[in-house]
Design a protein that fits this description.
The protein is of the alpha/beta class and 371 residues long. The chain has helices at 21-38, 132-149, 164-168, 173-176, 197-212, 224-234, 248-257, 269-276, 291-300, 305-312, 317-326, 331-347; strands spanning 6-7, 14-15, 18-19, 45-48, 54-57, 61-65, 71-77, 91-98, 105-109, 112-113, 115-116, 155-160, 178-179, 181-182, 190-191, 217-221, 241-243, 262-268, 353-359, 365-368. Helix 9 (291-300) runs antiparallel to helix 10 (305-312).
């Protein structure tokens, strides 16, 4: 790969970049198309990514049928590099066949590729979950091939991922209304390790689906425990809940441009304390629980010196929560209100109602900035 490797945060070794499912599908399409027209699979096969890089793929699976149906199939293995991507190692297969004259290029979902069933995504209901950029990449490769051989670009393209239906259960696709398998994704063709681009894209898609289906109150949760607590409180349909993880800043920025009537942020004490202290990325590698900050707030609320010192010496946010609850110190309430203030600053839209809720490890809501 010609892309420069990203250096790990520890600075010890370079992190290997990988390819998106869209890039893999494009390579498979190009190899299969050559087999369909010229009788020979391209292996390795070279494609051009959206930013102009030329990259090559090994073809892992190929087949051809010269009969009434007349098609060719090729497959490539998804290599996500050092990114913890659930599709790493998946086989992406493209089947290509002739379409009627003047029909152009059509895309369909094979085994393990999802189908759109809800409004709000980049594709219409009923279409294969092959995103616009991967479609464009495939169309461009087909167009260039057809120009070279002076034939019309009239082809049916079917993309499949044999174990995609099983893998999709580990994604947000079912909640987004993408049923039957995975989405074929990618905007650059390159997977940057730990960029979490797929997760962030899912957050944006989740918000769009909620809005398109009339949801005016969106619940943004940092994890499963907080989301389950919110479900008990609000009893909304699943599409109202956005699993934002640690990306509170990115979520609020997107909601700033795509507003709803109300936003509720819900998470554990430790993560929400980071938000109260101004952090917009709540991951432990990018922000830490500030015990001096918490001790200062406790002192402002009237905590005695013994409790202040205990908070300063705490190892976890859970300990601070337990210490404050034991003496009825309203620290969680103050944290929720300060987090609400910081979130509202990031949102930059006073017309959107916003509140913050805090849960304990047992999944109980222990503070609400509005109450």
């Amino acid at each position: 790969m010609n892309e420069k490797a990203q250096i790990s945060k520890q600075g010890k070794k370079p992190l290997k970049r990988g390819f998106t499912t869209g890039a893999c599908a494009t390579a498979a399409v190009k190899s299969a198309l050559n087999a369909l027209i010229n009788g020979e699979f391209l292996d390795p096969v070279t494609i051009i990514l959206p930013k102009g890089q030329k990259v090559s793929f090994k073809v892992e699976r190929e087949s051809q049928q010269l009969s009434k149906e007349n098609f060719a199939k090729a497959g490539t293995i998804k290599d996500a590099g050092d990114d913890p991507d659930i599709t790493h190692g998946a086989l992406i297969i493209a089947k290509i066949s002739h379409a009627k004259k003047g029909a152009g290029i059509s895309f369909s979902a094979g085994k393990g590729v999802g189908t759109i069933t809800k409004a709000g995504l980049m594709l219409e209901i009923g279409q294969a979950a092959i995103n616009p950029v991967p479609r464009l990449m495939m169309e461009q490769e087909i167009a260039q091939f057809c120009k070279r051989y002076k034939i019309e670009p009239d082809f049916n393209v079917e993309i499949s991922v044999p174990n995609g239906k099983k893998l999709a259960k580990k994604t947000l696709n079912p909640r987004l209304g993408i049923l039957g398998g995975l989405s074929i994704l990618g905007t650059s063709g390159i997977v940057v390790p730990y960029s979490c681009s797929a997760w962030i894209s899912s957050i944006h898609s989740g918000i769009n689906v909620a809005k398109a289906n009339g949801i005016e109150h969106i619940i943004c949760a940092t994890g499963n425990v907080s989301e389950n607590a919110a479900k008990e409180k609000f009893n909304y349909p699943d599409i109202a809940y956005i699993e934002m993880g640690d990306f509170v800043g990115g979520t609020l920025k997107f909601l700033r441009k795509n507003p709803v009537g109300k936003i509720s942020i819900i998470g554990g004490f430790a993560k929400i304390s980071k938000l109260a202290n101004g952090a917009m990325d709540l991951h432990s590698k990018r922000s830490e629980v500030d015990f001096e900050f918490l001790a200062k707030l406790a002192k402002q609320l009237g905590a005695n010196e013994k409790l202040v010192q205990e908070i300063l010496g705490a190892n976890t946010g859970k300990q601070v929560l337990e210490l404050s609850v034991a003496v009825n110190l309203p620290l969680t309430k103050m944290i929720a209100q300060m987090a609400q203030y910081e979130a509202q600053k990031m949102l930059k839209n006073d017309d959107i109602e916003l509140d913050v809720l805090i849960t304990n490890r047992a999944g109980e809501i222990v503070a609400n900035s509005e109450e």
